[in-house]
Amino acid sequence: MKLQIDPKYDAFREEVRAWLKEALPADMAARTLQCYHTTIEDRRAWSKILAAKGWAGPAWPKQYGGPGWDEWQVMIFEEECYLAGTPMVDEAGFKLCAPVIWTFGTDEQKQRWLPPLLAGDQYWGQGFSEPNAGSDLASLSTRAVRDGDEYVINGTKIWTTDVHYADLIFCLVKTDPEAKQRGISFVIVDAKAPGVTIRPIIDIGEGHSLNEVFLDNVRIPADWLIGEENKGWGYGKLLLDNERAYSAEIPRNKRTLARLKKLAHETGMIEDEGFALRVAEAEADLSALEFMTLRAMAEKAGGTNFPVGSILKIRGSELLQKLGGLQVEALGPYGAVVYPHGATNDMPPGPAIGHGVLADFMYRRAVTIYGGSNEIQRTIIAKSYLEL
Predict the structure, then answer these.
(1) Using one digit for the tens of pLDDT, what is the confidence trace for 71-129?
(2) CA distance 44 to 48
(3) How many CB atoms neighbour CB 145 within 10 A?
(4) Do 264 and 219 sit in the same domain of this protein?
(5) Which of 237, 256, 287 is the last residue of a domain?
(6) Which of 23, 66, 256, 367 counts the highest number of beta carbons within 10 A?
(7) Backbone dihedral angles phi then psi of residue 127, each to the nearest 5 degrees
(8) Are residues 70 and 141 in the same domain?
């Protein structure tokens, strides 16, 4: 394998960094860097800023309104955004659903949904997991029955991140109850439609980002089916592979490592030789993960069959948990404090840089589960290499 990075990417990084310094509001960055879940107001505002610049969909092809960047540019852009402290955008819409729509959707569907998403006028939620269908997603039971020009949907979705903000939800549903993977379809649901009930799930860090969604005789137009009926499993696999590749979390891991180092210096933990060694080991792990990602990108460009999504998902998610644990340890006794979600006044004692660390650490316990548990990813890798 040859891995050569064109020097033009250094100039691109400087361009992105300079623009972020000018365009990103300081108070917005400060809130994001506190490790709290970013507010919907900040996300929408940042999406509008990106849209005005033409950078809202960094990985989107030019014909659908994206900047037409290659994978190297997308990675650089996202890394600089994380390090600067930009809020999350609508990742479910931008990174997961949009590629399915432009790959399998009709021209009318592309025109209906892609421009409003790109402009920051719509927010999307993902309706995949169910109470009895998590890692074995193919066993989902939410049903969609064709009734004239509509589908009638009944079922329950769970762990739906930020769906309480959503205008639209993309769902996997059973259209053929006798089949397993072959009977699944990919549909879009209006989150405000009659019969849709959203119930919050408060997580262990006392934050609200997760939800349970109940679908009771919810009607959608038949042309809100993406692609062909009973072909949704294949579309969902494309989406999940994208999610797993992003789960390498290199930009987030870099920001977490930078925060860990700062925290260790402020609390004096960096003087502990054993702790400093573990920080150095984590930094080496991150360098290896970054190189693995670059290798995967190079091999993908060369047409090599490389199970990139699953491999990067395992390594990235486990490193994120390790870095989070080191941050909590660096805080000493203050690491046990769950700070009020998003509060700015009357905070508990402890260094200001520690605000949100424990809540974020506890939330990231799920990173080895969502997007397909790491145990399942190891099975996928084994099947790929052993040709089972």
Answers:
(1) 889 989 999 999 999 998 898 999 899 999 999 999 999 999 999 999 999 999 999 99
(2) 6
(3) 14
(4) no
(5) 237
(6) 256
(7) -110, 80
(8) no
Has residue 153 got a pLDDT over 90?
A: yes
Q: How far is CA 91 from the centre of its chain?
A: 5
Query: 215: which strand partners?
Result: 155, 196
- Residue 171: which residues within 8 A CB-CB, separation 6 or more? 127, 128, 142, 153, 157, 186, 187, 188, 189, 215
Looking at the structure, tell me whether residues 173 and 220 fall in a common domain.
Answer: yes
Please give the positions annotated as active site. Answer: 243
Q: What range defines the domain where residue 158 resides? A: 124-237
Q: Which amino acid, one-letter code, is at 196?
A: V
pLDDT at res. 305? 59
Q: Structure tokens of 23? A: 């365009």
Residue 233 sits in the same domain as residue 132 = yes
Final residue of a structural domain among 46, 71, 89: 89
